Amino acid sequence: MSIASETAVPKADIAVQRYRPAGQDWVDGVYAADPLADAAVAAFAELPRGTGMAMFRTALAEGIDAVPDAPAALRDLFAEVDTEPAWLDRAALDRAAGHLVRHMASYGIVLGAASLAKGAMNQVAGMPLVVTNRYTSQAAVRSLEVGSWMETILTPGGLRRQGAGFATTLRVRLIHAFVRKSLWDSGSWDSEAWGAPIAQSFMAFTIVEFGNIALTAMRQLGVRYTAAELDDIFHFWRYVGFLNGVGPGLNPTCEADHVRIEELYALTGSNPDDGDRDFVRALTHDYLAVEIADLLPVGGHGLGVAVVNGLTRAFLGDEAAAKLGVPDTVLKHLPAVVSPVIGGVNRVLGAVPGVNDWRTWRAQAGIPQVMAQQRKRYGMAHDLVDAAPDHGGHPAGS
């Protein structure tokens, strides 16, 4: 991957001028990592191999007090995540999970065709994936790992202290810290040109990928949430951001924050290169089109590719999609065609008492089966990369 700019934050001066303190927070955040998680992983390196992660798993399952010889850095990490923020509304978390699960098919499509594609517009943000060889070679597996994580956080109660989603989110946070340590230790990471690996600003943008970017694309497909439902969803992703180590200065709390972060990401991003285009192609051909084709009565994989390309064109716009090498297709008009139909059906069903609750229950009950089918299809037996049989050479396996 060739970085076109000598700085990790092109147009930093414009970002600060236009967005003032929020712009400065963004610029600074490109060079900031996750001090608590990074300190814990550094402490693990001083222990016999595997000891630190064993302590971490025990602390997740039984609490940090069950690890009397835990390093101070690990205690500091759990002191943060075990203390619920004053703003946390747990009922909102469960409501939000229901809102998202009810439209899980649409949500899954837009996370790939809109959110991940927009993420690929900044080559600096993708550098850690390039270095760990996970950008293009394992697109389907990475997508399923994300799906495995989402399965746990979208389960009712999943983000409670003993919930599976709480545990997987903390595991993701540690995985990121292991990647950062590996890249820093390699001596090949150029902090001036690339900022911090998996930086605060890009972690915040990841929350936006799951939040407003996906929600905007879903609206294009005809899935519309009420203002109250959107508040629940933004609250949900705020808590996920907190658990995943996004600091309060960048962790988005509302729609306006999500929009601003997306704008800053686009403004200060380095243009995509061949690696980013290869990623989008691999994601489309190796995963998204395979899943879409499975839903189509005719056309097979070829039509699946065309549908995904059309959706990406619709969600990103022609200019951005062209930069990613997404072919133009008449199917970019597909959302405009299906949106009135999907929107109308949702309005009718939502007006019938109890139907939305039933749809949510039905979708929630079906997630394990869908995930099992996909794992079988792609030969995947683990949930997250830290549990992969050979770890794929990933730093989190160390």
Structure, explained:
It is built from 19 helices and no strands. The longest helix is centred in the last third of the chain and has 24 residues, at 355-378. The chain is mainly α. The protein starts with 11 loop residues before the first helix and ends in a 20-residue tail after the last helix. 66% of the residues lie in helices and 0% in strands. The chain has 2 domains: 12-30 and 90-397, no CATH class; 36-83, no CATH class. Mean pLDDT is 93; it is low at 1-5. It has helices at residues 12-19, 21-29, 35-44, 51-62, 72-81, 90-102, 104-119, 127-131, 139-153, 164-186, 191-194, 200-220, 227-243, 255-268, 274-295, 300-316, 318-323, 334-350, 355-378.
Distance between the termini: 25 Å
Q: What is the number of domains?
A: 2
Largest sheet: none
Q: What percent strand?
A: under 5%
> Which regions are unreliable across 5 or more consecutive residues at pLDDT < 50?
1-5
The overall average pLDDT, rounded, is 93
Percent helix, as a range, is: 55-70%
Q: Radius of gyration, Cα only, in angstroms?
A: 21 Å
Which term fits the overall shape? globular
Query: Could you state the order of secondary-structure elements as H and E?
Result: HHHHHHHHHHHHHHHHHHH
Judged by helices, strands and strand pairing, the structural class is mainly alpha
Number of strands: 0
Count of DSSP-assigned helices: 19
